[in-house]
Each structure stands twice: as C-alpha cells, then as structure tokens.
Amino acid sequence: MLGNGRGIVIELTPRQLKIIDIVKKRAPITGEQIAESLNLTRPTIRSDLSILVMLEYIDAKPKVGYFPGKKAVARVPGGDLLKETKVKDIQSNPIIIREATTIQDAVVTLFLQDVGTLIICDADGKLAGVASRKDFLKVTLGNPAAVSMPVSMVMTRQSKIVTVSPEDSVLDAAHKMIFYEVDSLPVVVQSDKDDTSRLDVVGKVTKTSIIKLILEVEVK
C-alpha cells in the first residue's frame, strides 16, 4: 500500500513494482525493453507505465525512455539512497571556459555564474583543467599583471583532477569530495577508447546537489 500524498492509498501491483525496479536499474530504458524484460508485449504494460508516470514513480522523456521518478528515489532507504542514485541523476550543467581565456574574464565568469570552480577545456573541447576561486585569489593578490594571463597558467591540470562518470554512484562521488577536500567534481566520459586521457565533460556534481538529493527525500 502506497499513499499518493492526498490521503488516498494506492496499491501497486507486483508487475508495477517490478517495472519500477527495472527502470531504477537500467534507466534510460524504453517501454519495449521493459516489456521484453517482463516477457510481455508493449501494449500489455502500457496502462502500468501510464499509472506509474502519473504517480511519479517513473518519469518519461520523449525519444529517450523511462527514468526513476521522484517517488522511486524516495522509496530507497536512507542508507542506500546515495548508493542507488547515479551521478547522472543529479548532475548539473558545467561552466566551461577555454585555456586561452584570460584570468580577468575567468573571474568575471566565476562571479556571474555564482560558482566556486570553473572547468577548463582545450581547443578540441576536451578536459584540460579546473580552477577555483582560491586559485584566482592566489595569483591576483599583489600582481596586477595577472589579469591578462591565460587561465592555463593557474589551473590544476587534467592529470591531477579527480573526476566521476555519469554511471558512478552518488556515494562514490561523495567519498571523493570528502577524501580530496573539494566541493565539486567534473562528470566526464572517455572520448577516445585508445586514449584514456581524452575526456569529454558532460556535467558537474557538487556537494550542494548531493545535499538537495538527501533533503528532497527527507521532506517527503
């Protein structure tokens, strides 16, 4: 028995519960793939999918497939929430600048976007480094000429950057943030299977986004 938040109790069927579990484990996944996992046809589960979307246990994105909905995440016990939620579920858009960007322009971007760290990419759009407010503060204090320097002069280079992939768990991301004492991590995917150093930036995950995930469940 599951409440819908308005005092009405709705009982999900075993098949609907199985669909929620499949979507949580394999998202994004199409309706056809869900049906195949259940050894059923797509029309057979159409009403189940509609009900689960309406109740926010799953979410549908056109031409992409189904994802866990708000209530599917909320049903995960607190101790397992960070393990079962993937980085891709909470990542946000990264703020990216190029290596040749001047420190002055980088600082302006930092404050206009209200972020603590900028992600820096090379001319091909691959991850080259990161730079934080602290990095900019160190180089500009007592050095007026620093504003015209390229940001590549102060960034932490790619080989020393801690990253996560979209498929990593939020728990893994949180552990990295704590261990390396950083507030955010670039979310990357390998762009060249023969060169592991070539990384495309697809997002960022922050301590704030992890806290929001936890609070979203706690207030339900």
Overall pLDDT:
85
* Main sheet attributes: strand count, strand direction, barrel closure: 4 strands, mixed
Overall SS class: alpha+beta
- The tally of helices reads 10
Would you summarize the structure shown here?
The protein has 220 residues and is α+β, with helices and mostly antiparallel strands. It contains ten helices and ten strands.
Any overview of this molecule?
The protein has 220 residues and is α+β, with helices and mostly antiparallel strands. It is 41% helix and 20% strand. It has helices spanning 14-26, 31-37, 42-54, 70-74, 78-84, 87-90, 103-112, 133-140, 170-180, 207-218, and strands at 2-3, 9-10, 58-61, 65-68, 96-98, 117-121, 127-132, 156-157, 184-190, 199-206. The strands form 4 sheets. A 4-stranded mixed sheet has the order 5-6-7-8. Helix 7 (103-112) links the parallel strand 5 and strand 6. The longest helix has 13 residues, at 14-26. It is elongated. The two termini are 16 Å apart. The model is unreliable at 1-9 (pLDDT under 50).
What's the layout of helices and strands?
Layout: E1 2-3, E2 9-10, H1 14-26, H2 31-37, H3 42-54, E3 58-61, E4 65-68, H4 70-74, H5 78-84, H6 87-90, E5 96-98, H7 103-112, E6 117-121, E7 127-132, H8 133-140, E8 156-157, H9 170-180, E9 184-190, E10 199-206, H10 207-218
Parallel strand pairs: 5-6
Antiparallel strand pairs: 1-2, 3-4, 6-7, 7-8, 9-10
Helix pairs in contact: 2-3
Q: What labels would you give this structure?
A:
10 helices, 20% strand, alpha+beta, disordered N terminus, two-stranded antiparallel ribbon, 41% helix
